[in-house]
Amino acid sequence: MVRGTTADVAPHWPRLTRTGVLAPSLVALAIVAVMIGPYALTPGQTLASLVGQGDPQVAIVVWNIRVPRVAAALLVGGALAAAGASYQALFRNPLVSPDILGVSAGAGLGAVAGIFLSLPVAAIQFSAFVGGMAAVGFVMLVASAVRNTDRTLTLVLIGVVIGALAGAATSLLKVMADPYDQLPAITFWLLGSLAAITTEDILPALPMVLVGLVPLTLLRWRINVLSLGDEEARPLGIEAGRTRFLVMSAATLITASVTALAGVVGWVGLVIPHIARMLVGLDFGRVLPASVSIGAGYLLIVDTLARTMAQIEVPLGILTAVIGAPFFVWLLPHGRRGWS
Q1: DSSP class of residue 62?
Q2: φ/ψ (deg, to 5) at 6
């Protein structure tokens, strides 16, 4: 918490208690998610397989199917929530999300181009990552050339424009794609999914997310000051432009990495940071770990529902939108409270 502010008014101990409950709750959710599926497992079977004992067939289900998917859900949900919390603190607005700079749209275009060119899975993921980074790079390049305007507003508007252009290019590729082979794959990826995820798919994204989280953690005090405005940052010796660039780059790296892994999964970066602030206050040092924990658990629950609620798997993007849209409607009139 920044000293001298009155934003954090809730008692300190209850917030620590809430934060301390998140980690064990996440472990319990993960074990339950491993148990649930078409091939239901008992707690004893699950725990035995996790420690390397029990039925070999159960171990195959646990380690080859359930554990990679649970790990991917935790990684994607936590990463998107962390990026969303960073963007919202940076822009002093809880109504923004990682999509603000066109990252998701750019990553979607990159992946669709890879599918259209019939590239292997690893190359498609790399194309998505390159597309996301290229989108935000172009946004920041154009914003740096626009002067005498509010920088934050400029970034937001250019991000919307880049997102729209990337969406148009994606639609063009969908029209040109093979309707029997490529188009279904493109549509399914754009809706977001963790189906058929493997450990090999997770390994490239994990270090990228960790690298992105390091500067967000180290700069947490500076992000707190920036959330008060550039006028408060200058007397404290904080170079707002450089810090903002580092934070946006780290958040974009995180978003592009997990989007390349799971497809376009919306609303997590918008909704979860707001819930985290309601629980632990505005101090970014507490909001970041709370957002990661809540986001990981949230997407794990959503993914478990997606693979069990119907005979066919429901794409993640549909469920996150169904849950997130009503919350966003409520957030519009209430979202600025605590930021004024």
Answers
A1: I
A2: -115, 15
